[in-house]
Amino acid sequence: MSSKVTIGSDIRQARRAVEQLRMEAGIDRMKVSKAAADLLQFCTEQAKSDPFLVGIPATINPFKEKKPCAIL
Amino acid sequence: MDQTFLVNVFGSCDRCFKQRALRPKSEQLNYCSLCAEIVKATEGLRLSQMLSSYSQSILCLVLAVHQVAERVEALGQFVMKTRRTLKGHGNKVLCMDWCKDKRRLVSSSQDGKVIVWDSFTTNKEHAVTMPCTWVMACAYAPSGCAIACGGLDNKCSVYPLTFDKNENMAAKKKSSVAMHTNYLSACSFTNSDMQILTASGDGTCALWDVESGQLLQSFHGHGADVLCLDLAPSETGNTFVSGGCDKKAMVWDMRSGQCVQAFETHESDINSVRYYPSGDAFASGSDDATCRLYDLRADREVAIYSKESIIFGASSVDFSLSGRLLFAGYNDYTINVWDVLKGSRVSILFGHENRVSTLRVSPDGTAFCSGSWDHTLRLGWAWAAKREL
After folding, report:
1. Are B189 and B195 in contact (CB under 8 A)?
2. B299 at interface of A, judged by CB pairs closer than 8 A
3. Shortest CB distance from B302 goes to which of A20, A35, A51?
4. How far is CA A57 from CA A9, B132, B349, B381, in A?
5. ipTM (interface predicted TM)
6. Window 260-279 of B, Cβ < 8 Å to A
7. CA distance A71 to chain B (A)
8. Which residues of A touch B389 (CB under 8 A)?
9. Residue A4: DSSP 8-state
10. What is the homologous superfamily of the domain A9-51 according to CATH?
11. pLDDT digits (tens, 9 = 90+) for B172-221
12. Which of A3, A35, B62, B310 has the most other CB atoms within 10 Å of its CB?
């Protein structure tokens, strides 16, 4: 902090910090067991559509190099 | 018990077996005064140890997602490797972002170059040379028609992408949207091409209107450089999370500019933050070599992803589509893939020859791209990713 800051603004900053902390302390919190269970549920529901978990057949991979096809 | 009458009994102590004056005890055992003190002390110690172990186990039950996910089937080891390497940058790759078309991506590097790639063919589609070096932030517009980038120039510039081969990208008019008083560390378009959110080394985040360059909202609260930000995934969501050198991750309301929640459990700079796909949680990667998961509704840290063998900082994190996997790039040149629910590592990817600086999973979750100080970007994808149980 700059030495030029007056004591008045120190108090103002501290007041603001206290107000912010009061506001943060006042929010409604859910129990971790419930919140974690919700995360778990979301995960298991979405797992079927997650390519990294389910895997996709290599034949439809658009990243693969396309080899030119010659018609004889 | 009122002992006004002390009976001195001499005999052999049941603990040290020496001939001593014995303290009368209620049980059959007789101890000398020294042994009596020792027994009392060890009993007390055992009790306190029992109590502390109970309280520790209670804390563990409350703290982590792993306990709740005990019954979930383990994933087993993944075998993943680099499938494609994008070469073309002349110096360290610092940032990258995917386009919503799941195919194109933009990357920026220390030499001032910003390149748009087609990841399917590895062709470069556009290249811009910025007037500054260290382009630390780049982002693709949701429409795919523009890119934003910035770095040591303290600005965020938006370049419209032109598909007309006759037009020179550099000559195309670009607008300086954001002005900060220190370097730009991260930028992201909001749901539209019209607004852009930036984070800066000056300790603030800001929301700008792209057309006019006007500052719509600024976010003050971090005590040091802000290094990263991520927007909440929901369509109607108007919150974002930012992480900084003050070890804090802060969640902001975009309309009011207020910080709604703050989390300070990391032990060092937070390099990367990313929302969980459901929007109810977010992960962070830090220089303290750990990644952590914070739940927004429980308002606390709910998981920590670390190993004693990992001592280098995590520079960037991203979730797979379901949120089951957490990809994290580290400064020890590797990418670790974590099982978010179990807290264990399922894969470690080698390939980069210098620290991994940026990592993003593609919008449809089929591939991920990592950029590194070794001047390259590497792609890995989900097709035929073998799983060994």
Report:
1. yes
2. yes
3. A35
4. 64, 44, 22, 12
5. 0.80
6. 260-262, 276-278
7. 23
8. none
9. T
10. Transducin (heterotrimeric G protein), gamma chain (4.10.260.10)
11. 567 788 899 999 999 999 988 899 999 999 999 999 999 999 999 999 99
12. A35
In chain A, domain spans: 9-51
Query: Is B365 in contact with A52 (Cβ distance < 8 A)?
Result: yes
Quick check: A40 and B259 CB within 8 A? no
Residues 6 or more apart whose Cβ sits within 8 Å of residue B45:
none
